Amino acid sequence: MKIYTRTGDEGKTGVIGGRVHKDDIRVEAYGTVDEVNAWIGEAIVRMNPQVHQDMIDDLTEIQHELFDAGGDLAQAGKKRQYKVTDEMVTRLEQLIDKYDAECQPLKRFILPGGSPVSAVLHVCRVLTRRAERRVVTLCREQETNEEVRRYLNRLSDFFFTLARAANVRAGVSDVEYKRGGQVFE
């Protein structure tokens, strides 16, 4: 099988159920999910397996789930069973609680950064928020799996928490936003 097909040369791409323009909101949504997945790969290669193996394992599972989410979002017209479920959202909540237990309680907003791993996880977080915005638009305009929207919302919280835990493991403090007061108690 050849990698190039030339079928997209006219600005359209295939989705499950037909062909759409490459700038269709459905393509924007699953394309942004794919960006998140690529940045997770960057985070993983920056991690030390002796320090971060549990994080690597969790992120690898999330990469698979994001492929599932992309497949769900790529369905236009032709119906099949969706793969992203409420159970996946619940699992993310459990992971958030697990990694949050490693961190000091938040008192102020924090800036992205600290350790290199944390900085990349913050990139994952903001790209996940963008993917979520694209999926919100898609859900308003077309039929799709709305569990993906919930999953992405929780996933961005997961990346925030994981970034903080990565700083703890690196012995680096979170970078607090100092121009505001204490906002969390």
UniProtKB/TrEMBL annotation:
It is an enzyme of class 2 (transferase). One of its GO terms (biological process) is cobalamin biosynthetic process. SUPFAM superfamilies: Cobalamin adenosyltransferase-like. Gene3D superfamilies: Cobalamin adenosyltransferase-like. Residues 3-165 form the Cobalamin adenosyltransferase-like domain. Belongs to the Cob(I)alamin adenosyltransferase family. Pathway: Cofactor biosynthesis; adenosylcobalamin biosynthesis; adenosylcobalamin from cob(II)yrinate a,c-diamide: step 2/7. The keyword Transmembrane does not apply. It catalyses: 2 cob(II)yrinate a,c diamide + reduced [electron-transfer flavoprotein] + 2 ATP = 2 adenosylcob(III)yrinate a,c-diamide + 2 triphosphate + oxidized [electron-transfer flavoprotein] + 3 H(+); 2 cob(II)alamin + reduced [electron-transfer flavoprotein] + 2 ATP = 2 adenosylcob(III)alamin + 2 triphosphate + oxidized [electron-transfer flavoprotein] + 3 H(+). This is Corrinoid adenosyltransferase. Keywords: ATP-binding, Cobalamin biosynthesis, Nucleotide-binding, Transferase. Its EC number is 2.5.1.17. Signal peptide: none annotated.
